[in-house]
């Protein structure tokens, strides 16, 4: 049986051509070869003079490009042979969170989001924006509720509109997305959680779909 082996010396790799003798029925019958998952074969190799068939470098270059306005046309060709430029701090500040009128009063505030906290316009006829978040995000206890808060009574007076019932269990860093999946004008809350995906109706919190997988 012929095969090739990859070696990883530093930033590159080489391929060694090898030839092994394999008797009938001695080949690997399944992934990892044996019940212990050792990934080792008892076959003996007959290679005596290994040779390098080919090699190539997999080292990379990191480019940092800053685009600034100018009154002239400019062209820059990037080449791997160029010397590495001196590290400088970019003059362009990173973009922060969106700034929205969260409570409908005309005051614009930063809409800070995390993996499970999202701002969206979910409730029709309710001024401002609503925030969707989980009450707990790192537990296997059945205490986790998806909640929707409205801020139409003021930014400092969030109003709990609904929360899921019964509570969910096994909630570890769920990822929430708010989108009108069905195209009917009513947003859904799609949650990727621990070994399952759940979809909730946005205005009531009713669970529409749950897909579990291993």
Element layout with pairings:
Layout: E1 2-7, E2 12-19, E3 52-57, E4 99-100, E5 109-110, E6 118-120, E7 130-134, E8 138-139, E9 146-150, E10 159-163, E11 171-172, E12 175-179, E13 188-193, E14 196-201, E15 207-212
Antiparallel strand pairs: 1-2, 2-3, 4-5, 6-7, 7-9, 8-11, 9-10, 12-13, 13-14, 14-15
Kindly state the percentage of residues in helix: under 10%
Question: Structural class per helix/strand content?
Answer: mainly beta
Succession of helices and strands: EEEEEEEEEEEEEEE
| Overall strand count | 15
Strand order of the largest sheet: 6-7-9-10
What's the overall geometry? flat
Query: What is the top-level CATH class of the largest domain?
Result: Mainly Beta
Mean pLDDT, all residues: 83
* CATH-derived topology of the largest domain: Lipocalin
Features:
Lipocalin; single chain; mainly beta; disordered N terminus; four-stranded antiparallel beta sheet
Write a concise synopsis of the structure shown.
This protein is mainly beta.
What does this structure look like?
The chain is built from no helices and 15 strands. The strands form five sheets. Strands 6-7-9-10 form a four-stranded antiparallel sheet, with no helix packed on it. The protein is flat. A hairpin with an 8-residue loop joins β12 and β13. By secondary structure, the protein is mostly beta strands. The chain has two domains: 1-94, no CATH class; 99-212, Lipocalin. Helix content is 0%, strand content 32%. The chain starts with a strand and ends with a strand.
């Amino acid at each position: 049986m012929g095969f090739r082996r990859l070696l990883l010396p530093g930033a590159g790799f080489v391929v060694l051509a090898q030839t092994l003798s394999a008797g009938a029925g001695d080949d690997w019958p399944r992934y990892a070869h044996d019940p212990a998952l050792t990934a080792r074969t008892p076959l003996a190799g007959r290679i005596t003079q290994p040779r390098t068939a080919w090699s190539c470098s997999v080292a990379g270059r990191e480019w940092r490009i800053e685009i600034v306005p100018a009154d002239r046309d400019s062209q820059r060709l990037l080449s791997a042979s160029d010397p590495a430029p001196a590290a400088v701090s970019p003059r362009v500040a990173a973009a922060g969170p969106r700034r929205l009128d969260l409570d409908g009063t005309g005051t614009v505030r930063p809409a800070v989001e995390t993996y499970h906290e999202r701002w969206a316009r979910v409730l029709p006829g309710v001024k401002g924006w609503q925030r969707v978040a989980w009450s707990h995000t790192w537990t296997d206890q059945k205490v986790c509720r998806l909640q929707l808060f409205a801020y139409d009574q003021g930014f400092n007076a969030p109003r709990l509109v609904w929360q899921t019932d019964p509570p969910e269990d096994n909630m570890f860093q769920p990822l929430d997305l708010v989108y009108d999946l069905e195209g009917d004008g009513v947003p859904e809350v799609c949650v990727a959680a621990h070994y399952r995906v759940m979809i909730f109706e946005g205005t009531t919190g009713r669970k529409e779909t749950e897909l579990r997988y291993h």
